[in-house]
C-alpha cells in the first residue's frame, strides 16, 4: 500500500508582514513577552546572544549573515527557495577546496574556514537516494532495541521498534496501541545504565564533564554509571504520540548521559556499515594537507604524538555517535563533545530532512560563533584541536525546508515493502535528523583489554 504524505500549509507567509500568519505570530509574541525584562541580555556571552537571535519565533530571524552554500549551486535552487528563508552564499569567510575522487561525482567541493581550522563543510555530499536510505535506517532500523533511545528510560517500547510499529499503524495494518510506562510494570530500571533524566522525556540535558584523554581514561572507565530511574508520573501513551518525542538514539559505544561519559563496561555497540561507509568516504576524499598544511605551527595542541592528520585515511575508524531527531521547535544548546579520548580525529555530522542554523564558535562561549545553514545531504567535519573541542549548537530548525528530493515515492523502490516513503516524508516535514559520528579511541586501542590490564 502506498502512503502519501498529508500536505501541510506553507510557512513562507511568516516572512511577509502583511500576511495573516505573520500577524497571528506577532500577537502570540506580544502575549508571551509582555512581562519579560528589557535587560535580560546584559550577561549573555556572544554565543548565547547568537542562540537567542536565531531561536526567536517572532519576528522570524534575519539569516542574511548565515552562510548558505546552496545558494551558490544552481542544482540546489529549488531546495534553497524552500520556506522563504534567506541566507547568504558569502556571509562568512571560507575557502573552496577540491575533494579527491572522480570529476563526475556530486559533492566534489568542500569549504574550509580560516577562523576555525579543522572545520570542513561538504555541501550536498550525500546523494539523494542515500539520504533516503539513511532516513529509513535512522528511524526504522536504528532507533530500536538493542540501541538505546531517550524513550527507553521511561517506556517499554514495542519489540519491533517504535517506528516499525508506527509504519504498520499508518499503513492500516494495525491499530494505534498504547505503550506502557516502564514504571507501571514490575520491571527494574534498564539493567544497564542509561540516562539520568528522571523526568519526562525532553531535550538533551547539558552537564559539565571533564574532557576525556588517555591519561584520565582509567578514572572515567571506573566512575559508577547507575541506571536512570524511570519517571513515576507517566501514563500509557499511543505509539503515534511518542514518535515526535523521539530525540536521540545511541550509536556504537554506549553513552551514559548522567556522567556524560562512555560506559565501556557494556562493550562496543552496533555501528551500521551504511554509516561507516559514508563517513569514511567523506574523510577519505578530503585533501587534509590543504586543511592543516598551514596551521600546524602549534604542535602541542595536537598532544604528545603531534599532528596525525597525515594518517587519517588509514586510521579513521568511527566507533560511536548519536542520531539526533529534532522537531522544528527543538534546539541544541552550545556544547563541546569532549567525552572521546581522540580529541582531534574527525567527527562526521550528516544532516537530513529540514535545514538548520548551525553555530560553531571557539574553545569558550566568549567567541562569536560562525552561523552556517545546513541542508539535507550536507556533511560537517569537525577535526583537529581548534575545532574538535569548539563550542557548537543548533539554535534553529528552519520550518518549511524539506527539500523536493525527499518528497514523493522512491524513484525505484528497493523492495515492495518500501513503498511507504509518504510516512517518512510527513515526519520529515517537521523534523531534522542529524547523524553525528565520532571516534572514541585511536585505532588499535582496546579499551576493555587496556582497561583491565591497569585496573
Ligand atoms: O545537529 C547537529 O548538527 C549537531 C549535533 C551535535 O552537535 C551533537 O550531537 O553533539
Ligand atoms: Fe555536538
UniProtKB/TrEMBL annotation:
<dbReference type="GO" id="GO:0005737">
    <property type="term" value="C:cytoplasm"/>
</dbReference>
<keyword id="KW-0479">Metal-binding</keyword>
<dbReference type="InterPro" id="IPR005123">
    <property type="entry name" value="Oxoglu/Fe-dep_dioxygenase_dom"/>
</dbReference>
<feature type="domain" description="Fe2OG dioxygenase">
    <location>
        <begin position="317"/>
        <end position="441"/>
    </location>
</feature>
<dbReference type="InterPro" id="IPR027450">
    <property type="entry name" value="AlkB-like"/>
</dbReference>
<feature type="region of interest" description="Disordered">
    <location>
        <begin position="1"/>
        <end position="37"/>
    </location>
</feature>
<dbReference type="GO" id="GO:0046872">
    <property type="term" value="F:metal ion binding"/>
</dbReference>
<keyword id="KW-0560">Oxidoreductase</keyword>
<feature type="compositionally biased region" description="Basic residues">
    <location>
        <begin position="23"/>
        <end position="34"/>
    </location>
</feature>
<dbReference type="InterPro" id="IPR004574">
    <property type="entry name" value="Alkb"/>
</dbReference>
<feature type="binding site">
    <location>
        <position position="335"/>
    </location>
    <ligand>
        <name>Fe cation</name>
    </ligand>
</feature>
<feature type="binding site">
    <location>
        <position position="392"/>
    </location>
    <ligand>
        <name>Fe cation</name>
    </ligand>
</feature>
<dbReference type="GO" id="GO:0005634">
    <property type="term" value="C:nucleus"/>
</dbReference>
<feature type="region of interest" description="Disordered">
    <location>
        <begin position="180"/>
        <end position="237"/>
    </location>
</feature>
<dbReference type="Pfam" id="PF13532">
    <property type="entry name" value="2OG-FeII_Oxy_2"/>
</dbReference>
<keyword id="KW-0223">Dioxygenase</keyword>
<keyword id="KW-0408">Iron</keyword>
<dbReference type="InterPro" id="IPR037151">
    <property type="entry name" value="AlkB-like_sf"/>
</dbReference>
<dbReference type="GO" id="GO:0051213">
    <property type="term" value="F:dioxygenase activity"/>
</dbReference>
<feature type="compositionally biased region" description="Polar residues">
    <location>
        <begin position="1"/>
        <end position="11"/>
    </location>
</feature>
<feature type="binding site">
    <location>
        <position position="337"/>
    </location>
    <ligand>
        <name>Fe cation</name>
    </ligand>
</feature>
<protein>
    <recommendedName>
        <fullName>Fe2OG dioxygenase domain-containing protein</fullName>
    </recommendedName>
</protein>
